[in-house]
Amino acid sequence: MERRVNKMTDKKKRGSKHYHLKLPIDTANLEIIREFIARIAQNMGFTGEEINRIELAVDEASTNVIKHAYKTEDKNSNFIDIEVKTFPDRLEIYVIDRGKGFDPAKIKTPEMDAYFKKMRRGGLGLYLIKTLMDKVDYSIKPGVRNKVKMVKYIS
Amino acid sequence: MDKFDVFRRDVEEISILNIQGFLDAHTAPDFESELQKLLKEKRFNIIVNLDGLQYISSAGLGVFMGVIEDIRTNDGDLKICCAAPKVFKVFDLLGFPSLYEFYKGEDQAIQKFKSNEKS
After folding, report:
1. What are residue B111's phi and psi, to 5 degrees?
2. Is A125–B98 a contact, with Cβ atoms under 8 angstroms apart?
3. pTM for the full model?
4. Other beta carbons less than 10 A from residue B110's beta carbon
5. B109 and B103 in contact (C-beta within 8 Å)?
6. Closest Cα in chain B, distance from residue A108 (Å)
7. How far apart are CA A15 and CA A12, in angstroms?
8. pLDDT in tens, B44-93
9. Are residues B94 and A110, on separate chains, in Cβ contact within 8 Å?
């Protein structure tokens, strides 16, 4: 118990804040997600350009969840969670779902010519997330908890 | 104001789609259906004017990719103009400038179509 209290005090000292947004699976909610994350990033002192990047990365991760994580008939009863932790030096964003998941090993730099031929549109988002953020981690447990963690440091 | 709007103008053989607002996975189908209408009418000389576009995600870029092959195999082209720096940056990150012609102004894009017609 004592240990736990100390941990909390440490957290406070470091100035960490947590935010949580839970929304139904609907592309109409992308705008709310972008505004939510942009406002937090703005309050932390990120530049306009950095905020644009963060906003786009979170949109891309959320779009993947909304479009691909659940079957159409299951969309109404499911949610997307956006958890945000702020630290003095960085912003951590977690986009979480309980859907079917995907294989992060398959994320490659898109070959644009091949994309044109196949008219493939997926995958661009994952590539963008990697490019836009400082650190990206995936933890995939299909049907249980799929999590994309994105980190941006304050420069 | 609506979050996303598409306005169409025809200048002789060229169709100009002016897209405004936020182009994301929610609004991309509206843009796609306007482009599909043009293809159905066999209008393959298309300029997309991004003057009023404030935001684009990869769902929006996917719309451009989905139609270009059809347009080019019909001897047409889709040219893009008037992108704000913030919007152009997203196209640039995915290498679009080597695959699509980008112009600062709409007139330049129109001129390019017209000079191709003459030659």
Report:
1. -60, -40
2. no
3. 0.89
4. 19
5. yes
6. 12
7. 5
8. 999 999 999 999 999 999 999 999 999 999 999 999 999 999 999 999 99
9. yes
